Amino acid sequence: xxxxxxxxxxxxxxxxxxxxxxxxxxxxxxxxxxxxxxxxxxxxxxxxxxxxxxxxxxxxxxxxxxxxxxxxxxxxxxxxxxxxxxxxxxxxxxxxxxxxxxxxxxxxxxxxxxxxxxxxxxxxxxxxxxxxxxxxxxxxxxxxxxxxxxxxxxxxxxxxxxxxxxxxxxxxxxxxxxxxxxxxxxxxxxxxxxxxxxxxxxxxxxxxxxxxxxxxxxxxxxxxxxxxxxxxxxxxxxxxxxxxxxxxxxxxxxxxxxxxxxxxxxxxxxxxxxxxxxxxxxxxxxxxxxxxxxxxxxxxxxxxxxxxxxxxxxxxxxxxxxxxxxxxxxxxxxxxxxxxxxxxxxxxxxxxxxxxxxxxxxxxxxxxxxxxxxxxxxxxxxxxx
Length: 385
Hints:
Blueprint: H1 12-18, H2 59-71, E1 76-80, H3 83-91, E2 99-103, H4 108-117, E3 124-128, H5 133-139, E4 144-150, H6 162-171, E5 175-179, H7 184-187, E6 197-201, E7 215-219, H8 222-235, H9 241-251, H10 254-272, E8 278-282, H11 292-298, E9 305-310, H12 313-321, E10 328-329, E11 339-341, E12 362-366, H13 372-383
Parallel strand pairs: 2-3, 2-4, 4-5, 5-6, 10-11
Antiparallel strand pairs: 1-7, 6-7, 8-9, 9-12, 11-12
Helix pairs in contact: 1-2, 2-9, 3-4
């Protein structure tokens, strides 16, 4: 869905509330209606009123697509039933024999899709440290068509220089895809740095309440939007109208939630970095983090995700995550409640034995918006002395 070219140059807080969400012209309803319909009346054969079938288009979904595209500074946006459905749609632009370069700390689901599913269709892949331009250049082949990054990454929270990656991709006739789930458009806007596609698991920070699953792609190219739109309709992995409504409702509070997520995360990092049981804290806001300088350059703040390794290995990591009372032991992230997990045994289990395998003593926190002192006390008692 193309953005309204006449959208005012509002700030992102205003866009989150108003972009694509004008009052209903028929009733004046301030909230976008849920168009819970599968089909639409036509005035005559082949003469519809802008909609014909809800897999192809739905007014509630249109509002969502305009909203997120506007937040990303994109001219076009397409919504999907999940983040993986959005990723799969981009990857379906590839042809047999094409090659993907991705980060060596990519999300386990992304790695599984590329390495276990797409390889059946003769898609090749290489995983490298995307913070190192030399490694990227060495990995690129004549058949490389996509450089795929998530920044910050999941779960090591490495930050990739998007401007650099896009430049390398374009110099080699490839697309630059940025998974912006962790940062959100409130903290970082990859399209402005040269990315061709921005992809989201909208389930996470955009929705923000652990009550809906969704995905999104933003882009600035009409040609690429046409290709993605064709696949969106042909494959049919689209969100239902009610899911779109829930995502729109969540997006309205994205900026204020992200401020609290970041504030709480920074307090937790300060606590963890001096704790006797913690080996290393991974957070882009730390000056000791290997990609801190890049994060400082391209991010507004450093996000609500924190990872850390503990003494005692996997056994101790599992013990700690089972002892929390405010942090919930669960997969997913980016919602108002704080979550805790052991990636090696949970979200990244599919990467076991691969170049993307995760340290089994690593704990990942999705820091929520609860009272910071309660979160600190909870971690303190779970870690023990």
